[in-house]
């Protein structure tokens, strides 16, 4: 079978529709109707990617809770929120909890399949990195590309797949400004500007938890972001 995708959706018809669409693409699909069932399954076997609705049964924010629980099990499993809730507050909340993408249910199936394929391509690119690129070091930053792990001054930074790829893209060329469009292209992202901004804020917060003086990721007004050399 192909990669295993977990779909957590409380509406049976929608769950079946998504499951069928991904199965037709060769994915192995595991579908769950509620948070407890999905969490129990994740503890036994992690999926390769999870698609989660925000409202699950009698838990209006059960998807947010499940995202946090899955992130406690793995920082690297890609997570996509797929929900009818489209407020800026919900989008930011989802990204702050560690989701890689936040989509609304009016998205077409081909577009959804493309977003999932893009996440898997980023995993493949990292896995296929040449030996000389397995470790990227920039002063206090160490990125192990083969293991998808990051550390700052010897302490682990719990980055998600998207966050790791963005830090890698910026740190490869310190001082070079990456526009949001370039950052999306280089990091194989298919998201909007607001999502990029939310991810950068979350990345900075994670580094600042280890080092309150962390200032390596600079915003360049009207241009984008860059990794500042020491």
UniProtKB/TrEMBL annotation:
A GO term from the CC aspect: protein-DNA complex
Record-linked Pfam families: Response_reg, Trans_reg_C
Source organism: Nitrogeniibacter mangrovi
Superkingdom to which the source organism belongs: Bacteria
Keyword Nucleotidyltransferase carried by entry: no
Annotated region of DNA binding: 133-229
Presence of keyword Metal-binding: no
Domain annotation Response regulatory: ranges: 4-120
Alphabetized PANTHER family for the sequence: DNA-BINDING DUAL MASTER TRANSCRIPTIONAL REGULATOR RPAA, REGULATOR OF RPOS
The entry's keywords: DNA-binding, Phosphoprotein, Transcription, Transcription regulation, Two-component regulatory system
Domain OmpR/PhoB-type: 133-229
A molecular function (GO) term: phosphorelay response regulator activity
UniProt protein name: Proteobacterial dedicated sortase system response regulator
InterPro entries attached to this UniProt entry: CheY-like_superfamily, OmpR/PhoB-type_DNA-bd, Response_regulator, Sig_transdc_resp-reg_C-effctor, Sig_transdc_resp-reg_receiver, WalR-like, WH-like_DNA-bd_sf
Modified residues (4-aspartylphosphate): 53
Gene Ontology annotations of biological process type: regulation of DNA-templated transcription
């Amino acid at each position: 079978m192909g990669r295993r995708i977990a779909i957590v959706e409380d509406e049976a018809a929608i769950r079946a529709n998504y499951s069928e669409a991904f199965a037709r693409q060769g994915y192995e699909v595991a579908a769950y109707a509620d948070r407890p069932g999905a969490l129990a399954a994740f503890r036994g076997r992690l999926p390769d990617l999870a698609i989660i609705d925000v409202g699950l049964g009698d838990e209006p924010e059960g998807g947010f809770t499940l995202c946090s629980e899955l992130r406690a099990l793995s920082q690297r499993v890609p997570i996509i929120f797929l929900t009818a809730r489209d407020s800026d507050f919900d989008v930011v909340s989802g990204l702050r909890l560690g989701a890689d993408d936040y989509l609304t249910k009016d998205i077409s199936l081909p577009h959804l399949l493309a977003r999932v394929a893009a996440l898997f391509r980023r995993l493949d690119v990292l896995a296929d990195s040449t030996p000389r690129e397995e470790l990227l070091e920039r002063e206090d930053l160490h990125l192990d590309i083969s293991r998808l792990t990051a550390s700052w001054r010897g302490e682990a930074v719990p980055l998600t797949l998207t966050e790791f790829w963005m830090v890698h893209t910026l740190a490869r060329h310190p001082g070079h400004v990456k526009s949001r469009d370039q950052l999306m292209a280089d990091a194989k992202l298919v998201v909007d500007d607001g999502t990029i901004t939310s991810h950068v804020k979350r990345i900075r917060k994670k580094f600042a938890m280890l080092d309150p003086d962390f200032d390596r990721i600079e915003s360049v007004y009207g241009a984008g972001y860059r990794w500042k050399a020491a």
